[in-house]
Amino acid sequence: MDEHQDGTGGDRGRGGTDSLSHIEAGSQGPRSRMVDVSGKAATHRRAVARARVEFPAGLLEVVMAGGGPKGPIEEVARVAGVLAAKRTGDLIPMCHPLGLDVVDIRFAARGSSTLEVTCEASCTGPTGVEMEAMVGASVAALTVYDMTKAASKAISLGAVELLEKSGGKSGHWRRDGA
Q: What pTM was estimated for this model as a whole?
């Protein structure tokens, strides 16, 4: 299937709006809109996302032991990620505000220079929590950067990606290799 086709005959990414859920035809051309989820059944929704923070050689071990310039990073970054996930609807224009049941931020060293930040979010509602998980992971990773940037300007943020989601019409999905 062509990457621009959505499987329903709609033309995605080429100006067509017939099957795009967030675009509607307006008198002056296409315009964005928030999807009406009022008719959708509330089901259990869950998503897990990750962001990566890359450190110069030898620095990850130091900051994970509490030796960063602003002190231990995990709890501050965890709280930042939880707060961000809860405010996703305020940050991403077409996201619905959701009453999250849980947000969990975890940190794991992957090798000697990569910190993996994962965020799991879940709720019972009419729409998914993928964006909440991705925002939570992103902001927690940004907070790690903020708390460690004085130790090295070479710290960088890597991939932010959805690892898994479940619930709703599309059911369960898991990234290959996750």
A: 0.83
